[in-house]
Design a protein that fits this description.
With 252 residues, the protein is of the alpha/beta class. Helix content is 44%, strand content 15%. The longest helix has 29 residues. The radius of gyration is 17 Å and the shape is globular. It binds nicotinamide-adenine-dinucleotide. Nicotinamide-adenine-dinucleotide binds next to α1, α4 and α7.
């Protein structure tokens, strides 16, 4: 039986890349999904609808409180609940690697705003519905770079470190309401934008892979088992945790 039958999930940043894979996997497990991105994620909507999944697609900027509260309202109006929030939207795939003193203040603010405040805004918008249900699962997306202290992406690594702290503190605030808050920290994944970003040249990717116990590149599909586990009842006694999914580069 599908592990998410009867559940309703929201996935941000689902137009392409890892977010689109997450949305397809949640639908395959039986969840009705609201997928969102800066623009309406029409291609992902069509892909889910083609498999017979229940889906709505909306435009939602995670940095806009009004936009994300509309996203939640539309989800509840269409599907009647909101059980799972996947805080996937982020600035990553298009970022250039650069020394920290070449990062402008505006680029720093943009990364913090989407990667940190975006997750905050979405959690704030969805929690009233989860509280009313007495149940919810929030899955945040950090990065293995936090635990490695990876150089040349200081704004990004700092923002994802914040997501780990956000996960822990929010889990304590929401535990009494039956809402679980956990986090996935992926290693480098060959998502659509990573594949075309000159920052991730073959030798850079090969050096990254060499640090892993499992010596191969990661695809979005490598994250899906952990995503479904954190979204399903299987993990209902787990909260505040960050699971690193990187082929055994970071061990903690
Ligand atoms: N690919 C990797 O190696 C890797 C590793 C660790 C963590 N991650 C994280 O996983 C997530 C997805 O990774 P990806 O490689 O697919 O990234 P990506 O940059 O290709 O995609 C991110 C998506 O977020 C959307 N987005 C950006 N700003 C937004 C906003 N303000 N509101 C709504 N949507 C917005 C983009 O349009 C895009 O579709 C990101 O949070 C990323 O930081 C990726």
């Amino acid at each position: 039986m599908a592990r998410l039958a009867g559940r309703v999930a929201l996935v941000t940043g689902a137009a392409q890349g890892i977010g689109a894979s997450y949305a397809l996997a949640l639908a395959k497990e039986g969840a009705a999904v609201c997928i969102s991105d800066i623009r309406v994620p029409e291609e992902t909507r069509e892909a889910i609808a083609a498999t017979g999944g229940h889906v709505i697609a909306v435009a939602a900027d995670v940095t806009s409180p009004g936009s994300v509260s509309d996203m939640v309202a539309e989800t509840v109006s269409r599907f009647g609940r909101a059980d799972i929030l996947i805080n996937n939207a982020g600035l990553f795939g298009n970022l250039a690697l650069k020394p920290f003193d070449q990062i402008s203040s505006s680029e720093w603010d943009a990364v913090m705003s989407v990667n940190v405040r975006g997750s905050f805004e979405c959690a704030k918008a969805v929690v009233p519905q989860m509280r009313a249900q007495g149940y919810g699962k929030i899955v945040n997306i950090a990065s293995g770079t936090v635990f490695k202290g990876s150089p040349m992406l200081l704004h990004y690594v700092t923002s994802k470190a914040a997501v780990v702290g956000f996960t822990r503190a929010l889990a304590r605030e929401l535990g009494p309401d039956g809402i679980r808050v956990n986090c996935i920290a992926p290693g480098l994944v060959m998502s659509d934008n990573v594949k075309v970003n000159p920052a991730w040249a073959a030798d850079v990717v090969a050096n990254n892979v060499a640090t892993r116990a499992l010596k191969r590149e990661a695809q979005p599909e490598d994250l899906l088992g952990t995503l479904i586990y954190l979204s399903a009842a299987d993990s209902d006694f787990l909260t505040g945790q960050t699971i690193v999914v990187d082929g055994g580069s970071v061990m903690h």
